[in-house]
Amino acid sequence: MKNRSLLIVAIVIFFLVGCSANEINTTKTESGIDVPIVEVKNEDDKIEIARVVFEEYLKLTYENYLNDRNEKINILKDYKINDITVLEKLNYEVYRIEVSYDLQSTDGYATVFETGNGEIKEDNWVKGKYQIVDIKKIGEYKYTISDMYTG
């Protein structure tokens, strides 16, 4: 009986931890785009903060893409951040970066990544993507994207 109770407790804990591990906190940019809220402990490294926030944005957006049948699917096969540069500090909480990156889609979705800028290459890669992103501190060790532009 004791073993059975322990097993039930273990299953409940496993279920709760497993479910919550997949959840990501999100907010919206000023223009209404869903963006992640990311925890980064090293608050001195603006490039690292921007990299982590932008990578989580790519995953949130393209691993949960709504297709024509209104189904959430993952269209992000791979990505590469080529460069991140801090452009300016906008205020105490916000700084602006530029990021150049490449995206690889699953078959049939490269044109989604081409939107805005970039060029479709071999193996569903879209190379030469460029974005200007405003990174905002919203709490202790917590960052998000407040706005973004293609330049």
TrEMBL record:
<feature type="signal peptide">
    <location>
        <begin position="1"/>
        <end position="21"/>
    </location>
</feature>
<protein>
    <recommendedName>
        <fullName>DUF5104 domain-containing protein</fullName>
    </recommendedName>
</protein>
<keyword id="KW-0732">Signal</keyword>
